[in-house]
Design brief:
The structure holds two protein chains of two kinds. Chain A is mostly beta strands. Helices cover about 0% and strands about 50% of the residues of chain A. Chain A has strands at about 5, 10-15, 20-25, 30-35, 45-50, 55, 65, 75-80, 85-95, 105, 110-114. Chain A is globular. Chain A starts with a strand and ends with a strand. The relative contact order of chain A is 0.33. By secondary structure, chain B is mainly β. In chain B, strands 2, 5, 6, 10, 11 and 12 form a six-stranded mixed β-sheet that branches. A four-stranded antiparallel β-sheet of chain B has the order 3-9-8-7, with no helix packed on it. In chain B, strands 1-4 form a two-stranded antiparallel ribbon. The N and C termini of chain B lie far apart (about 40 Å). The chains are: A mainly beta, B mainly beta.
Protein backbone atom coordinates (compact mmCIF):
# COMPACT_ATOMS: atom_id res chain seq x y z
CA UNK A 1 0.00 0.00 0.00
CA UNK A 2 1.97 2.99 -1.29
CA UNK A 3 -0.55 5.70 -0.25
CA UNK A 4 -0.12 8.86 -2.33
CA UNK A 5 2.82 9.01 -4.71
CA UNK A 6 4.03 11.90 -6.86
CA UNK A 7 6.17 11.91 -9.96
CA UNK A 8 8.69 13.49 -10.38
CA UNK A 9 10.23 14.49 -7.06
CA UNK A 10 12.29 17.32 -8.52
CA UNK A 11 12.18 19.24 -11.79
CA UNK A 12 13.84 22.29 -13.28
CA UNK A 13 12.09 24.00 -16.19
CA UNK A 14 12.94 26.96 -18.34
CA UNK A 15 10.36 29.71 -18.72
CA UNK A 16 7.80 28.74 -21.33
CA UNK A 17 8.33 24.99 -21.09
CA UNK A 18 5.51 22.65 -20.23
CA UNK A 19 5.29 19.67 -17.94
CA UNK A 20 2.85 17.34 -16.20
CA UNK A 21 2.99 16.26 -12.58
CA UNK A 22 1.46 12.89 -11.81
CA UNK A 23 -0.29 12.00 -8.59
CA UNK A 24 -1.42 8.46 -7.87
CA UNK A 25 -3.25 7.00 -4.87
CA UNK A 26 -4.10 3.39 -4.10
CA UNK A 27 -6.63 4.00 -1.31
CA UNK A 28 -9.70 4.25 -3.56
CA UNK A 29 -10.28 7.85 -2.46
CA UNK A 30 -12.88 9.90 -4.24
CA UNK A 31 -11.39 13.31 -3.53
CA UNK A 32 -8.01 14.48 -4.79
CA UNK A 33 -6.28 17.85 -4.54
CA UNK A 34 -3.30 19.79 -5.79
CA UNK A 35 -1.71 22.37 -3.50
CA UNK A 36 1.33 24.57 -3.85
CA UNK A 37 3.58 25.70 -1.03
CA UNK A 38 5.73 28.76 -1.45
CA UNK A 39 8.64 29.48 0.91
CA UNK A 40 7.50 30.41 4.42
CA UNK A 41 3.86 29.89 3.61
CA UNK A 42 1.13 27.37 4.08
CA UNK A 43 -0.35 25.29 1.30
CA UNK A 44 -2.76 26.87 -1.17
CA UNK A 45 -5.30 24.95 -3.21
CA UNK A 46 -4.76 24.96 -6.99
CA UNK A 47 -7.37 22.52 -8.29
CA UNK A 48 -9.33 19.63 -6.89
CA UNK A 49 -11.48 16.72 -8.00
CA UNK A 50 -14.47 15.11 -6.29
CA UNK A 51 -14.46 12.06 -8.52
CA UNK A 52 -13.32 10.49 -11.76
CA UNK A 53 -13.92 12.79 -14.69
CA UNK A 54 -14.55 15.90 -12.55
CA UNK A 55 -12.28 18.82 -11.72
CA UNK A 56 -12.74 22.26 -10.22
CA UNK A 57 -10.70 25.37 -9.51
CA UNK A 58 -9.24 26.21 -6.15
CA UNK A 59 -7.80 29.49 -4.90
CA UNK A 60 -4.81 29.79 -7.26
CA UNK A 61 -5.73 27.99 -10.53
CA UNK A 62 -4.22 30.38 -13.08
CA UNK A 63 -1.53 28.84 -15.24
CA UNK A 64 -2.48 25.25 -14.37
CA UNK A 65 -4.75 22.60 -15.80
CA UNK A 66 -5.76 19.26 -14.36
CA UNK A 67 -7.31 16.01 -15.43
CA UNK A 68 -8.76 13.01 -13.62
CA UNK A 69 -9.35 10.36 -16.25
CA UNK A 70 -8.90 7.52 -13.76
CA UNK A 71 -10.01 7.52 -10.15
CA UNK A 72 -6.54 6.76 -8.86
CA UNK A 73 -4.69 9.44 -10.85
CA UNK A 74 -4.78 13.22 -10.79
CA UNK A 75 -2.57 15.11 -13.23
CA UNK A 76 -1.42 18.71 -12.91
CA UNK A 77 -0.21 20.43 -16.07
CA UNK A 78 1.75 23.59 -16.62
CA UNK A 79 1.37 24.66 -20.23
CA UNK A 80 3.87 27.54 -20.20
CA UNK A 81 5.90 27.63 -17.02
CA UNK A 82 6.71 30.96 -15.36
CA UNK A 83 9.20 31.76 -12.57
CA UNK A 84 6.22 32.55 -10.30
CA UNK A 85 5.34 28.85 -10.47
CA UNK A 86 8.53 27.90 -8.66
CA UNK A 87 7.15 26.09 -5.65
CA UNK A 88 6.69 22.77 -3.93
CA UNK A 89 3.60 20.96 -5.19
CA UNK A 90 1.67 18.60 -2.99
CA UNK A 91 -1.01 16.19 -4.03
CA UNK A 92 -3.50 14.90 -1.47
CA UNK A 93 -6.48 12.59 -1.37
CA UNK A 94 -9.31 11.86 1.06
CA UNK A 95 -12.42 9.77 1.53
CA UNK A 96 -15.82 10.96 0.42
CA UNK A 97 -17.68 10.01 3.56
CA UNK A 98 -17.07 10.56 7.22
CA UNK A 99 -16.35 13.65 9.26
CA UNK A 100 -13.14 12.62 10.95
CA UNK A 101 -11.14 12.13 7.82
CA UNK A 102 -7.70 13.34 7.11
CA UNK A 103 -6.12 14.28 3.85
CA UNK A 104 -3.30 11.99 2.89
CA UNK A 105 -0.45 13.90 1.31
CA UNK A 106 2.13 12.84 -1.19
CA UNK A 107 5.83 13.60 -0.61
CA UNK A 108 5.79 16.71 -2.80
CA UNK A 109 7.42 17.80 -6.06
CA UNK A 110 9.95 20.59 -5.94
CA UNK A 111 9.70 22.62 -9.15
CA UNK A 112 12.08 25.39 -10.14
CA UNK A 113 11.36 27.58 -13.15
CA UNK A 114 14.32 29.60 -14.40
CA UNK B 1 -9.86 38.29 6.10
CA UNK B 2 -7.52 35.42 6.77
CA UNK B 3 -9.38 32.21 7.44
CA UNK B 4 -6.56 30.67 9.47
CA UNK B 5 -4.15 32.81 11.46
CA UNK B 6 -1.01 31.56 13.12
CA UNK B 7 0.61 34.52 14.85
CA UNK B 8 3.82 32.81 15.98
CA UNK B 9 6.30 32.54 13.11
CA UNK B 10 8.78 30.80 15.38
CA UNK B 11 8.84 29.22 18.82
CA UNK B 12 11.53 27.77 21.04
CA UNK B 13 10.94 25.20 23.76
CA UNK B 14 13.20 23.23 26.03
CA UNK B 15 13.20 19.48 25.70
CA UNK B 16 10.63 17.79 27.97
CA UNK B 17 8.63 20.98 28.42
CA UNK B 18 5.14 21.62 27.04
CA UNK B 19 4.47 24.13 24.29
CA UNK B 20 1.32 25.71 22.86
CA UNK B 21 1.06 26.72 19.22
CA UNK B 22 -1.67 29.24 18.53
CA UNK B 23 -4.29 29.07 15.81
CA UNK B 24 -7.36 31.22 15.28
CA UNK B 25 -9.86 30.71 12.50
CA UNK B 26 -12.66 32.55 10.80
CA UNK B 27 -15.73 30.92 9.34
CA UNK B 28 -19.48 31.43 9.22
CA UNK B 29 -20.10 27.76 8.43
CA UNK B 30 -21.59 25.96 11.45
CA UNK B 31 -19.88 22.73 10.43
CA UNK B 32 -16.14 22.66 10.06
CA UNK B 33 -13.09 20.69 11.02
CA UNK B 34 -9.73 21.81 12.29
CA UNK B 35 -6.49 19.98 11.62
CA UNK B 36 -2.89 20.22 12.64
CA UNK B 37 -0.11 18.98 10.39
CA UNK B 38 3.60 18.69 11.06
CA UNK B 39 6.13 19.33 8.32
CA UNK B 40 9.68 18.28 9.23
CA UNK B 41 12.68 19.51 7.26
CA UNK B 42 12.29 16.52 4.95
CA UNK B 43 9.15 18.19 3.63
CA UNK B 44 6.36 15.67 4.04
CA UNK B 45 3.03 16.62 5.62
CA UNK B 46 2.21 14.53 8.68
CA UNK B 47 -1.30 14.58 10.11
CA UNK B 48 -1.34 15.09 13.88
CA UNK B 49 -4.83 15.75 15.18
CA UNK B 50 -8.39 16.64 14.19
CA UNK B 51 -11.18 18.56 15.95
CA UNK B 52 -14.72 18.73 14.63
CA UNK B 53 -16.85 21.80 15.27
CA UNK B 54 -19.51 19.74 17.02
CA UNK B 55 -17.10 17.76 19.17
CA UNK B 56 -17.81 18.37 22.83
CA UNK B 57 -14.40 17.34 24.05
CA UNK B 58 -10.95 18.49 23.08
CA UNK B 59 -9.15 16.07 20.80
CA UNK B 60 -6.09 14.23 22.05
CA UNK B 61 -3.57 12.01 20.27
CA UNK B 62 -0.71 10.83 22.41
CA UNK B 63 1.41 13.86 23.32
CA UNK B 64 -0.74 16.14 21.18
CA UNK B 65 -3.92 17.80 22.35
CA UNK B 66 -6.05 20.47 20.83
CA UNK B 67 -7.33 23.28 23.03
CA UNK B 68 -10.58 24.08 21.23
CA UNK B 69 -12.34 27.28 22.27
CA UNK B 70 -15.24 27.60 19.89
CA UNK B 71 -16.54 30.98 21.08
CA UNK B 72 -13.09 32.50 20.66
CA UNK B 73 -12.54 30.62 17.38
CA UNK B 74 -9.24 29.25 18.50
CA UNK B 75 -7.75 25.78 18.11
CA UNK B 76 -4.36 25.76 19.77
CA UNK B 77 -2.09 22.74 19.59
CA UNK B 78 -0.47 21.64 22.82
CA UNK B 79 2.56 19.38 22.67
CA UNK B 80 3.47 17.87 26.00
CA UNK B 81 6.95 16.65 26.93
CA UNK B 82 8.65 18.08 23.83
CA UNK B 83 11.24 15.94 22.08
CA UNK B 84 14.06 16.94 19.76
CA UNK B 85 12.18 15.21 16.94
CA UNK B 86 9.31 17.66 17.38
CA UNK B 87 11.39 20.40 15.72
CA UNK B 88 9.45 21.19 12.55
CA UNK B 89 6.94 23.51 10.92
CA UNK B 90 3.42 23.14 12.25
CA UNK B 91 0.38 24.08 10.21
CA UNK B 92 -3.15 24.65 11.36
CA UNK B 93 -5.79 24.00 8.70
CA UNK B 94 -9.57 24.16 8.39
CA UNK B 95 -12.13 22.32 6.30
CA UNK B 96 -15.51 23.97 5.87
CA UNK B 97 -18.70 22.22 4.86
CA UNK B 98 -20.68 19.33 6.19
CA UNK B 99 -20.86 15.68 5.30
CA UNK B 100 -20.78 14.92 1.63
CA UNK B 101 -21.15 18.48 0.46
CA UNK B 102 -18.46 20.89 -0.45
CA UNK B 103 -15.03 20.33 -1.84
CA UNK B 104 -13.48 19.30 1.48
CA UNK B 105 -10.23 21.05 0.71
CA UNK B 106 -8.15 22.47 3.51
CA UNK B 107 -7.27 26.10 4.09
CA UNK B 108 -3.89 26.43 5.76
CA UNK B 109 -2.30 28.98 8.04
CA UNK B 110 1.21 30.25 7.41
CA UNK B 111 2.72 27.93 9.98
CA UNK B 112 4.84 28.08 13.12
CA UNK B 113 8.42 26.86 13.17
CA UNK B 114 9.08 25.04 16.43
CA UNK B 115 12.60 24.43 17.62
CA UNK B 116 13.17 22.11 20.55
CA UNK B 117 16.36 22.81 22.43
CA UNK B 118 18.24 20.17 24.47
Amino acid sequence: NAGVTQTPKFRVLKTGQSMTLLCAQDMNHEYMYWYRQDPGMGLRLIHYSVGEGTTAKGEVPDGYNVSRLKKQNFLLGLESAAPSQTSVYFCASSYYEGETYEQYFGPGTRLTVT
Amino acid sequence: AQKITQTQPGMFVQEKEAVTLDCTYDTSDPSYGLFWYKQPSSGEMIFLIYQGSYDQQNATEGRYSLNFQKARKSANLVISASQLGDSAMYFCAMREGQGGTGRRALTFGSGTRLQVQP
